[in-house]
């Protein structure tokens, strides 16, 4: 929102006769995370965990002298895990 729109919204809210409980309700609604924010956080956590798992796999393969999975195999594993 633009500053102008936010100022208009604030003027409107100030013009309402809100009880303390109404103001608290409004404040809580403004502060609670949206579904989109929660979904973004879940996606970020999934990517982070996947990358850590991939790095662990690379380090383990180097220590053990074994061949790493291909990128296609890794993508398929991620897809399978995503559907769980």
Radius of gyration: 24 Å
Run of helices and strands: HHHH
Instruction: Give the CA-CA distance, first to last residue.
Output: 38 Å
Quantity of strands, as a count:
0
Question: Which geometry do the CA atoms define?
Answer: rod-shaped
Structural class: mainly alpha
In the predicted model, the low-confidence regions spanning at least 5 consecutive residues are none
Major sheet summary line:
none
Which bin fits the share of residues in helices? over 70%
- Mean of all residue-level pLDDT scores: 89
Strand-residue proportion: under 5%
Helix run count: 4
Features:
84 residues; mainly alpha
Description:
This protein has 84 residues and is mainly α. It is 80% helix and 0% strand.
Element layout with pairings:
Layout: H1 3-15, H2 20-31, H3 35-64, H4 71-82
Short description:
This protein is an all-alpha fold. It has four helices and no strands.
């Amino acid at each position: 929102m633009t500053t102008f729109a936010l100022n208009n919204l604030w003027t409107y809210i100030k013009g309402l006769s809100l009880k303390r409980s109404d103001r608290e309700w409004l404040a809580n609604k403004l502060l609670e995370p949206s579904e989109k924010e929660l979904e973004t956080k879940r996606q970020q956590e999934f990517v982070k965990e996947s990358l850590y798992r991939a790095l662990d796999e690379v380090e383990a393969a180097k220590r053990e002298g074994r061949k790493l999975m291909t990128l296609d195999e890794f993508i398929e594993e991620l897809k399978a895990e995503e559907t769980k």
